[in-house]
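Lab notebook, bench 4. We co-purified these components, and the gel suggests they stay together. Before we commit to crystallization screens, I want a quick structural picture of the whole thing.
Request: model the full complex, all chains together.
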Amino acid sequence: MTNTIADIETADVILITGSNTTENHPVLSSFVKRAVAFKGTRLIVVDPRRIKMAGFAHQWIRQNLGTDVAWINGLMHVIIKEDLHDKAFVESRTQGFEELQKTVEKYTPEYVEEITGIPAQSIIDVARIYAKAEAASILYCMGITQQTSGTDNVKSLANLAMLCGNMGIPGGGVNPLRGQNNVQGACDMGGLPDVFSGYQKVVDLGSRQKMETAWGVSDLPDQPGLKVTQMLPKAHDGEFKALYIIGENPLVSDPDLNHAEKCLDNLDFMVVQDIFMTETAQKADVVLPSSCYAEKDGTFSNTERRVNRIRKAVDAPGEALADWEIICKISERMGYSMNYADSQAIFEEISQVTPSYGGITYSRLEAQSLHWPCPAPEHPGTPILHTEQFPIGKGIFHSIDFREPAETADEEYPLLLTTGRVLYQYHTGTMTMKTQGLNDRAPDCFVEISANDSAKYNLDEGALVEIASRRGEIAARIHISDKAVDGTIFIPFHYAQAAANRLTHAALDPVAKIPEYKVCAVKVSLAAA
Amino acid sequence: MDAINNIIINGNSFTFNTGDTILEVARQNDIDIPTLCYLKAVTPTGACRMCIVEAEGTDKLMAACTTPASDKMVILTESPRVIDARREILEMLLSSGNHNCAISSSVDDDWTAFQLKVQKDDGSDQLCPVWGDCRLQDLAYRYQVTGKLPESDVSIDPVEQVNPFIVRDFSRCILCGRCVQACNEVQVNNAIQFGYKGSTTKIITPGDKPLKDSNCVFCGECIQVCPVGALVEKDARYEVRQWETAKVKTTCPYCGVGCQLYLHVQDNQVVKITGAEESPPNYGSLCVKGRFGFDFINSPERLTTPLIKENGEFRKASWDEATELVASKFTEIKAAHGSDSIGVLTSARISNEENYLTNKFTRAVLKTNNIDHCARL
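Here is the predicted assembly.
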């Protein structure tokens, strides 16, 4: 997030898109709900489902799946045409405005209505509400990113925020809501193929030399590696031989599972390090037992770049070890010694080689958590990014055209499927499904469908149906809901026994290589008795 | 610029900002005015009157949580009048329900009869489930109130146990309204309200249905703010006693909000979780997963030893054997097919320190940049 969670309550307008906030980020959603209920904040929700947050919104608009670039361009078209943009900000802080203006020229409200299904007048209304706000905050989540146009969608939201001067100010910003406790930290710490910790690029000689000195090695690889969604196809082709998987369950969470399973089967050697015997661990050659968050010290970085401590409360079961201890053991045996007394010693090394964490220490975190960038011991941390300038200087408007999603509905597969989570379960369920109460509340997979579609396809509440895409099929029970809009069904992806990802499409965004979980074409029919 | 405001509390002079309540000024200056219904960050109601103070030159006692401080005000927070009034309130509250914490006189025959009745209501031979962790009990002790026994049957509503997480015990509810404010003004889930009137007043969902059939999403904020034993975690009720647990502050392992929470630990097990009210970003709020979804930690399905697959079956192995196998396989594959034939999926679930070391191991030891995690998935 460019801004903080607390900062959401200071916005005049909040635009939420592609985030089912009350179910996926419940505590954060209460900041939004309080702002709307008690502080006069206006809320716009753009989402293909009539999610709970839509009930709090002044305006809920419903876009066709995979058409986000179009409605965002439509808003910018209206804002520029009505001269509502922040000219001072555009002039002093950005570049590329003229091209953006040209690109959005054709996205008239009428044209946008054709693509997105959003009434032209709603586009105009929402554009005005957003642009006239003193400070408007954009919150988004995987509904925006998990598409073949994911990168374009995010850049488009950034365009919108810059156009209205909503960057670097309290109550503004472009705020992705991170779905996992330390997904921010995994990115910050170099858990990506192209960067070391602190986003220092592997192609940059200076960065490599710095790490080589710090680590006492030579010849660090200088080309970006493979993203997860590229590793699996290479395994399928036989180029890729071994995989070391830590705390992930791709055999439930990956797109097009049937294919993913074949890819993993084709590996020569697979190690899985986890707290449970997951679907993925069952395929491994070696399984290493690790400790969970309650059994070790360390830090997590949250969605607002706040570095928080975790502390050991109980002992790990049996011989399970902290993930860092296991890595040290393997490294030692491969001839590279890693000696750390504890997690604090590792953190001290992180601070030394990672400028954005340079001023963070355990002793400072004892007093209060800190937002990176925090480059020096006396630096207070940075709750709001980009207040003076962007890291690259001026912010660049990316002129982006709408592209169709990889798959659209047709005669054979007439419905569109979108996937996500429910409040009571988490990701592949390895943790939440151990709590009976959570299972009582959300026991099984279901197919959320509109009343009209259920009537059209003659499917009663609770009916067991087969849902099929071009890649696979699963069975689940029908749940008729007013959250669903005609033509689109929703299935949660938590449940291994009816894994929604057997249906989803592995088509990737060309830049981020993120799969299009949020759009694919399916058909639904009564299961054979 | 505002004129300087001065207030005198218990003989000491303090400055304050216009609009501050007497309670806020007192807390800013470490003066303890006891509260019961007051809930930080929401509109004070003044309902319980526990925070009453005496203002010199007036007859009335006023609630410190709702009365704005004013210039030249002279306040006494523990005057004999104030103390008498607080004792009266506490006595009334203690007498209003099944408050069997033995704070009352324990020699009276009636008391024994009362205990037996409560034990029957509770279906338990233990004292109140929040004994030792109760604001009302603390205040009764502080003001040495022995309480009277309830005059009649205190509650006609049976205990609600039909959901997996929250036990609602109306016989111990003092109608302070904190849960209603937490639900409507903090979490904004709008599941509960004051219902009925007069002596039958009760905290209800619309239609007085059980929580499981209401808008309730089981965030448990109501339990966190309940000052008595009316709302208690189902699994912890009677099982977990505050004096037998240690609290460890940490960060929630679920979504990316990073809520700060306390693990309550007993016999090397996490038995309860509460939100850390003093810390951002959540200031005590949690969701149903963060508050109740901790059984996985102590699950019998946890992996406890390294496993090596042989002929399609896993067998137990020592750390030495397992790590030696992993190291030799990686070394062998690296030599035969090159570093880039190996990849590592690090995790959004593990710590920064662990992710950093995985990054170091992948690049410096395996000598590949093939490292990624599930940010995309």
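The domain at 92-233 of chain B is CATH 3.30.70.20 (Alpha-Beta Plaits). Worth comparing against the SEC data before the next meeting. The mean pLDDT of chain B is 93.
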